[in-house]
From TrEMBL, chain A:
<protein>
    <submittedName>
        <fullName>Chaperone modulatory protein CbpM</fullName>
    </submittedName>
</protein>
<dbReference type="Pfam" id="PF13591">
    <property type="entry name" value="MerR_2"/>
</dbReference>
TrEMBL record, chain B:
<feature type="domain" description="J">
    <location>
        <begin position="5"/>
        <end position="69"/>
    </location>
</feature>
<protein>
    <submittedName>
        <fullName>DNA-binding protein</fullName>
    </submittedName>
</protein>
<dbReference type="GO" id="GO:0005737">
    <property type="term" value="C:cytoplasm"/>
</dbReference>
<keyword id="KW-0238">DNA-binding</keyword>
<dbReference type="InterPro" id="IPR008971">
    <property type="entry name" value="HSP40/DnaJ_pept-bd"/>
</dbReference>
<dbReference type="GO" id="GO:0042026">
    <property type="term" value="P:protein refolding"/>
</dbReference>
<keyword id="KW-0963">Cytoplasm</keyword>
<keyword id="KW-0143">Chaperone</keyword>
<dbReference type="InterPro" id="IPR001623">
    <property type="entry name" value="DnaJ_domain"/>
</dbReference>
Length: 109, 317
């Protein structure tokens, strides 16, 4: 039975992505991902914990930076828009399903 | 092996300057980047474009490519490096590459491992021992399965390993799905991805949770929503009905004068995590009978005569 994990530590995130800690700190500073345990600045970055979804966005951010040669500010904006798009698509799917429960699907088109 | 004309791939002339090459790359990268273009084939096209840019932006690699191009353009479909051509070893001098390492056979045959470092600025992993690739798969689960911890056997394809020269293989893995997983969440299975190379650790396997749409319930956060069809008289007079929940049926009291769209909250019948229990919302949907009997028509007529109700009151202002 494999152990299922929902969070990843700062050190592990560096190892998994093969990057230096400074880069993760920079990504956090730009708000691309946020540690789940950063309610105050008293927690040192070595103690940061991220949810596993953060890895997906860190990978995306690194890829965008390398592939498109865009700066962190632009990447933060792109990632934020991507996240908003995903949330809106999810919300839209819910509303579509709810609407179909009120109106037969054939009548929507 | 096919000869790749990097100039043609980037749609630039062979005498294009660095600025033109960069502009062409940016234009094509925006068009084909997998994060921006979900079309099938876009990723392969992007890899080709990135490889071309990787070579043409580097003066030394470009000069070598130009030399080979004279030779290769004559043997376009069956290209072999000229006799005596030796792919130089990896010097590790390339930094900040656009590329993620999937170089074509053509690239490898002329440049060897050179420039294959896909580590961006700040990457500190040693060249010799490489961590295995992470794998992500979608895991569909039923809404009912999220209510308590469950076990699932996941099946996925382990990609081919060029280092170990293994073919893609089917893998089965027993995993524990915790209570309360949500649609869109990712579960990490440490070390279950592609094996590492020369002492490098194995990659991880990510399970991207996809909750299968339920025939009766919709999910909003930790709450679930069920639509309850009512006859017009049930909605007008109120009633008590049996309503399904995720764990059995309950009796629900419908108050008189209920409207389509009214929401009734049933506490604690939503999704459950270790710390939180959501609610169920029953949404009223007043449904007309498809056919009305003669008696029914008479009764509706009596209602029409006696009631002073204008459903289009808002239109008259």
């Amino acid at each position: 039975m494999s152990e299922t994990l929902f969070s990843i530590s700062f050190d592990e995130l560096c190892q998994v992505e093969g990057i230096e800690g400074e880069l993760i700190i920079e990504i956090v500073e730009y708000g691309i991902v946020m540690p789940i345990n950063k309610p105050s600045d008293q927690i040192r970055y070595e103690q940061w914990l991220f949810d596993t979804g953060a890895i997906h966005w860190v990978k995306k951010a690194l890829r965008l930076r390398q592939d498109l040669e865009i700066d962190w500010v632009a990447i933060a904006m792109v990632i934020k828009l991507m996240q908003q798009k995903e949330a809106l698509q999810k919300e839209n799917r819910l509303y579509q399903r709810q609407l179909r429960r009120f109106i037969p699907s054939g009548d929507l088109d | 092996m096919e000869f790749k004309d990097y100039y043609k791939i980037l749609c630039v002339e062979p005498d294009a300057n660095a600025k033109t090459i960069k502009t062409a790359y940016r234009k094509l990268a925006h068009k084909y980047h997998p994060d921006m273009n979900p079309d099938e084939g876009a990723e392969a096209k992007f890899k080709e474009v990135a490889e071309a840019y990787h070579v043409l932006k580097n003066e030394q690699l470009r000069a070598e490519f130009d030399e080979l191009r004279q030779y290769g353009s004559q043997s376009r479909h069956d290209f072999q490096p000229p006799p005596g051509w030796k792919a130089p070893p990896n010097t590790g001098q390339q930094g900040g590459s656009q590329f993620h390492g999937d170089f074509s056979d053509f690239f490898n045959s002329i440049f060897g491992g050179r420039g294959q470092s896909h580590h961006a600025q700040g990457f500190d992993q040693a060249q010799r021992s490489a961590r295995g690739q992470d794998i992500e798969i979608e895991l569909p689960i039923f809404l009912e399965e999220t209510l308590k911890e469950s076990q699932k056997t996941v099946e996925f394809v382990m990609p081919a390993d060029d280092y170990a020269q293994t073919a893609p293989s089917k893998k089965h893995l027993k995993v524990k799905i915790p209570q309360g997983v949500m649609d869109g969440e990712r579960i990490r299975l440490k070390g279950q991805g592609k094996p590492g190379h020369q002492g490098g650790t194995a990659g991880d396997l990510y399970l991207h949770i996809r909750v299968v749409p339920h025939p009766l319930f919709d999910v909003q956060g930790h709450n679930i929503i069920i639509t309850i069809p009512l006859s017009p008289w049930e909605a007008a007079l109120g009633t008590k009905i049996s309503v399904p929940t995720l764990d059995g049926k309950i009796h629900l009291t419908i108050p008189p004068d209920s409207q389509s769209g009214d929401k009734l909250r049933v506490k604690g019948k939503g999704l459950k995590t270790k710390t939180l229990i959501g609610d169920m919302f029953a949404v009223v949907k007043v449904t007309m009978p498809e056919k009305t009997s003669e008696k029914g028509k008479q009764l509706w007529q009596e209602l029409a005569n006696s009631e002073d109700f204008d459903p289009r009151l808002e239109w008259s202002t």
